[in-house]
Amino acid sequence: MTTPSERTRAIIQTHKFLAELSQSRHLPEGVRVEAKRLLRHYPSEREILEAARVEQHLSEGPIFQPVFNATY
Question: pLDDT, tens digit, for every residue of 51-64?
Answer without folding.
Answer: 998 888 887 777 77
